[in-house]
Amino acid sequence: MAQLKVTQIKSTIGNKRPARESVRSLGLKRIHHSVVVEDSAIVRGYIRSATHLLTVEPYEATEGK
């Protein structure tokens, strides 16, 4: 399954509750923190509600280890 690398680029302070909760649900804890998540409808919904706080890019795992 495809994966996405999600990075928080702005603070959640001063934003509405759904955006704050979406960022936290993705596993992000601070600015410039990145996580790799599975690409699913639920994750896309979290990203959509907080697009102004996040950057998203495709992620390809290297299986060389």
TrEMBL record:
Specify the superkingdom: Bacteria
Pfam families linked = Ribosomal_L30
Keyword Acyltransferase assigned: no
UniProt-recorded Gene Ontology molecular function terms: structural constituent of ribosome
UniProtKB keywords: Ribonucleoprotein, Ribosomal protein
Is Transferase set as a keyword in this record?
no
Q: Which residues form the Large ribosomal subunit protein uL30-like ferredoxin-like fold domain?
A: 4-53
GO BP terms: translation
* PANTHER family, A to Z: LARGE RIBOSOMAL SUBUNIT PROTEIN UL30M, MITOCHONDRIAL RIBOSOMAL PROTEIN L30
Give the family, as the similarity comment puts it.
Answer: Belongs to the universal ribosomal protein uL30 family.
Q: How does it assemble?
A: Part of the 50S ribosomal subunit.
* Protein name per UniProt: Large ribosomal subunit protein uL30
Species of origin reads: Nakamurella alba
- Write the gene name: rpmD
